[in-house]
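Lab manual, section 2.4: Encoding a predicted structure.

Procedure: take the sequence of the chain (274 residues), apply the prediction step described in section 2.3, and record the output as structure tokens. A sample record is shown.
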Amino acid sequence: MKLTKLAAVAAILTAGIATTQAQTVDLKTQSINEIGLTVSAYSYKEPSLGVQMDATNIGIEYQGTYAFKNNWFLLGEFDYNNGSVKYSGTGNQSGIPQYYYNLKAAVGYDFAFDGFVLSPYVGIGYRFLSQQWGNTTTSTGAYGYDRQSTYNYLPVGVTHRFAVGQKSKVETTFEYDYLLSGNQYSGLSQLNGKGGLSGLSNANNSQNSGYGLNLTVMYKEDNWGVGPYWKYWNIQQSNTAYGTLTINGVRYNAGWYEPANNTNEYGVKAIYRF
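Recorded output:
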């Protein structure tokens, strides 16, 4: 009788260990595709000039992951966001078209622990933002021009996963983005012929100092997931591009630079997994 009870207890303990091991294996990075929809509040600021641009963005994103049998994995990501910007600074203006997209590829490795998995990764990323502000004026009569921002960056991140049910888990990802190089394009030639201006050429300013942060918390089932996210960029002042311009027939030497700026974006995403 005692041997029978001991055998039963051993069987229960063995089943518990097997379940824990199964959950640990299941928490590792899986080969999967994810398509998502996002809604976010976007805010861009240039503190030194008192400039702020706000938008409500609607976006789509795709992430594809391939997991090898030796705990290594590859991932690729694309996201696109679109929203009309409200500007405040030299006057006010609403309805400025803006979009941005982001591309990222990375390699990572799974480390399994008791009840959770950590998956650090490193890769390469590219971000492009376009703002179609040309041929418009603010409430004080200031003229707008098209702007484009390009960032090349090094993403370094880690994902933490733990089970909250037999088929569900919580996945938290934190990422630091080191800016490798950036460029700010300003379509200043669109200002020629306005307010007595002429002789202006488009400007390109290099941005080589800055960083980004990303934080995402997702609740995931087998084929769907939902959760909040935060994106942040902090970019230092660019170099100065020099040129000439003419105001009412008088020629001047001038310089243009992109001031230090920061971008905050808070949102929520829902994904389909297949």
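Check your result against the sample. Residues 1-25 have pLDDT under 50 and may be disordered.
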